Amino acid sequence: MTDPSRGLSWRERARRVREGESALANEAVEEPLAALEDLFATILLRSFDAMVLCTREGEYLEVSDSFCTLTGYARHELLGQTSVTLSLVDPEGVRRRMEAEVDQRISAVNDNVIVRKDGTPRMVEFTQQFLDSDGLTLVIVRDVTERRMREQELERLSREDSLTGALNRRGFAAQVDALLASARTERRTVHLVVVDVDGLKGINDELGHAFGDTALVEVAGALHGAYGVDAVVGRLGGDEFAVAAPAGTATDVERATAELRAALAKVAIGPAGATRGLSVSVGLTSAVDGMGTLERLLAAADAGQYVEKRGRQSASADD
């Protein structure tokens, strides 16, 4: 005899058993179906990953213990609610995503930030699996806060000079390239300054590398102070820094450079009784309307800096 329920989903088979529409309406079938439902409930409730069974509209029908732990809500506080009514996530973003994914019948991995009951945010990654045509949805949520924080820290370290806190060459190049692209669109001028610390080798040789490191830190701080919070400051390597100023005129940049020199002259590097101030050699160039590559701009500014340094060295020799 052909099984009339062959090919039906377990949900439809269960419905037919309840309504007595199938020859399978007997204990031999009811027990496996009940066991399957119990197994599903156990997986849902005890899963290490946070899991939610919800309607098309996002109403929670069942939640796992892990989801309760993640959100800070008790199970009875969650059932019948949605992520929007509980203010777990941004409502507009949820609406757009749910509409798009239900209409297209796809399952996707999404990133979001949820706000726990105590108000603390957690970064999560979740997958939605649509179980039937009525929009019954299984949502699997994974807390990725610590992982994302580690990734962000690694990304920061890959772009930042560990000694001075300024951007390293890679980080500086990435930000200035973006700045130039924006300036081309807005027809805005970007000024580039190359700064070389005078006499750093002498400080290292005569006073020790610890004082040389202190000098570099002082220069980085003075660059931020002189050129402003909008300026991009990077350490290109050794004793060389660069600054990209996204606003102001060449006169403004020259004024900031004068402030830099004055600030560094007041710095005391070295042991008590043998301190010295700092000086820098500077080269300046401008990318009108953002035109030009970073490499060419650096070369032009570096040439100006080299001329100034040679002039200072010649004057010192004459003295």
From TrEMBL:
SUPFAM superfamilies from the xrefs?
Nucleotide cyclase (SSF55073), PYP-like sensor domain (PAS domain) (SSF55785)
Matching entries from Gene3D superfamilies are given as:
3.30.70.270, PAS domain
Domain of life of the organism encoding this protein: Bacteria
Task: Note the InterPro entries from the entry.
Answer: Biofilm_reg_signaling (IPR052155), GGDEF_dom (IPR000160), Nucleotide_cyclase (IPR029787), PAS (IPR000014), PAS-like_dom_sf (IPR035965), Rev_trsase/Diguanyl_cyclase (IPR043128)
Question: GGDEF domain: from which residue to which, for each copy?
Answer: 188-319
Q: Where is the PAS domain?
A: 36-92
Q: Kindly give the PANTHER family that the UniProt entry links to this protein.
A: BIOFILM ARCHITECTURE MAINTENANCE PROTEIN MBAA (PTHR44757:SF2), DIGUANYLATE CYCLASE DGCP (PTHR44757)
Protein name stated in the entry: Diguanylate cyclase
Q: Which organism is it from?
A: Nocardioides humilatus
Q: What taxonomic classification does the UniProt entry list for its organism?
A: Bacteria, Bacillati, Actinomycetota, Actinomycetes, Propionibacteriales
